[in-house]
Task: structure prediction
Amino acid sequence: MNTKIEALINNIEKVIVGKRLPITKVVCAMLAEGHILIEDVPGVGKTRLVASLASSVEGAFNRIQLTPDIMPSDIVGFSMIDPQTRELEYKQGAAMCNFLLADEINRASPKSQSALLEIMEEHQISLDGRTMELPSPFMVMATQNPVETYGTYHLPEAQMDRFIMKVSMGYPTPEEELDIITRSENPSFTEKLPAVMTISELNSHIAAVKQVRCTDSVKWYIVSLLNATRGSDLVKLGASPRAGIALLKAAKAYAYIEGRDYVVPDDVKAVMSAVLSHRLMLSPKGKSAYPSAEAVMEQVALSVPAPTK
Result:
């Protein structure tokens, strides 16, 4: 069932070297009909990963550079009067596509960031009393730089909760870096990747992911993880019920990628940190004892035994 998914991942690996796990998580988010936030330092391939995924699937891809002067109308569109018919006519914004790259999302003003809330949750645009459905599938792939604070705005918790996953690229190993700079000498390295999957095929895979089975014992494991985040003294604000739904969807997608039509606890563990960490607000004790929310999440998960049946 995952031959096409394997081909998709391999296609992206032609230009993203040594990052199979982040690639798999991005594909996992796509199959779960979720949005993904890629956070890392400049120059490690965040934007290239997103563009490579979009070009590997035959869908509409738009990119918007979220600078402080970006307006909500640039994202969702606007209405203007047609001089001939004298009626309001909708002009599409960047969000009217299958894959929306929101580059440097934390540089947009809170007013513009709020324009993403409805489209990420409802997959629709409400404007001047009209509601426009977005194409299916629809996915927001956002990037941000965690080390710069000048000219950036903090993403509100409501928006962070709408990203099914947050992943990091990380620096390559010396051997991988040598491979990257060697490949960069070839002109084809910067060319657009060929598509290996159609939108129709992608929708079929998404429908198949929804049919992946998950037993009550694994669902109880997910619920126990959520409650562990809420009861830990390392966490000030724990994971929401929406986070539990996201974790189940991501686990199903990961199981599908692994070639199974049922979820096992290892699938939940594989995506747990990426799904839950960015939704947590750490307590002062958590911030002082651990370097990141991911480390806190891994520590909290140790107190929850995985089901054995």
